[in-house]
Design brief:
By secondary structure, this protein is of the alpha+beta class. It has 14 helices and 8 strands. The protein has a 6-stranded mixed sheet. Strands 7-8 form a two-stranded antiparallel sheet.
Length: 307
């Protein structure tokens, strides 16, 4: 059990970190809570020297205002605001940092659902000047609802996206014959044009073969999500058909995911919305060749089990 015990306040926030028990007494002032470097290090299981280096990078890149996020006690101890801790969590590539962000989001959600105002809620309301409490609540609800998407964008900006939360149990393997039959069935929806789905060369067959490529007896793309992402990418970028490349790519992408029982969540909602499908397809179409790996990681993170 991890607990933050903020002095001068009745609130105690906690979350479970495996079997470890950790308690950190933090300062409460100016409508936020403050940590020392050793406390941040204990929070993420890192060395104080490493945390100090990460914090220096944050300020060097002007991500945060050093004047409002650092305070010094009368005894000369340096404290960092919760904003610094959150920013540091994105630079610490570990399950503990991800869990910490999830914990912060839960605090916000719990506060909103209970109709109360958390420390961060109060701080946001204070720092937004003319923004009233209802507006601050609305802002926090948006931040909470889209925390995963914003996390992906932050990792994208810092080139820190990874493949995670994927599924290895393949139920359906897409073959050239099955895929072409599906494409021919799709043709009628778009007017039955002779150009739609008409192959220009053998690149489509090659695209399907590549997603099942192996090296030293192991698949290069072992998860369903990685295969689906590469399928979308290759069909869009290879322009294998005289017409309909993007529509065919998007259709095969969601069809492949559906055949592997990953398109819909347990509650029946789509794992990837219509507008997200359009955005991903166009993003890949406009991307540069050297951005391929990052495009794949974006797609995987939007269809994996964490989303």
């Amino acid at each position: 059990m991890f607990q933050l015990i903020a002095e001068n306040t009745e609130k105690i926030f906690s979350y479970q970190h495996q079997e470890e028990q950790t308690f950190i007494n933090v300062q409460s002032a100016d409508n936020t809570i403050w940590f020392t470097q050793p406390q941040i290090a204990a929070l993420f299981g890192e060395s104080p020297a490493h945390i100090a280096s990460l914090i220096n990078n944050i300020y060097e890149e002007s991500e945060l205002d050093i004047h409002t996020t650092i305070r010094t006690s009368d005894e000369g101890a340096t404290f960092y605001a919760i904003d610094v801790v959150i920013s540091t969590s994105y630079l610490v590539k570990s399950p503990r940092s991800l869990q910490f962000r999830s914990w912060i989001n839960k605090i916000i959600k719990d506060s909103l659902s209970n109709g109360g105002t958390s420390t961060e809620h109060q701080r946001l309301a204070t720092n937004t000047g003319s923004v009233n409490t209802d507006e601050a609540t609305g802002l926090l609800k948006v931040l909470s609802d889209y925390a995963y998407a914003l996390d992906i964008l932050d990792k994208y900006d810092h080139q820190q996206l990874t493949i995670q939360g994927t599924t290895s149990d393949t139920l359906f393997q897409i073959s050239y014959t099955v895929a072409m039959n599906a494409i021919h069935g799709l043709k009628d929806k778009f007017g039955g044009s002779t150009l739609f789905g008409n192959e220009k060369d053998d690149s489509f067959r090659s695209s399907l073969a590549v997603i099942y490529q192996t090296f030293d007896g192991r698949e290069l793309y072992p998860s369903i999500e990685e295969k689906a992402a590469h399928l979308l990418y290759f069909v869009v970028k290879n322009h294998s058909f005289s017409d309909g490349n993007k529509r065919i790519a998007a259709f095969l992408f969601v069809w492949f995911i559906d055949k592997n029982n990953l398109l819909y969540r347990i509650d029946g909602s789509k794992r990837i919305a219509d507008n997200a499908l359009v955005a991903l397809t166009l993003m890949i179409a406009e991307s540069k060749a050297d951005e391929k790996e990052m495009m794949i990681k974006v797609v995987v993170n939007l269809i994996n089990n964490l989303n």
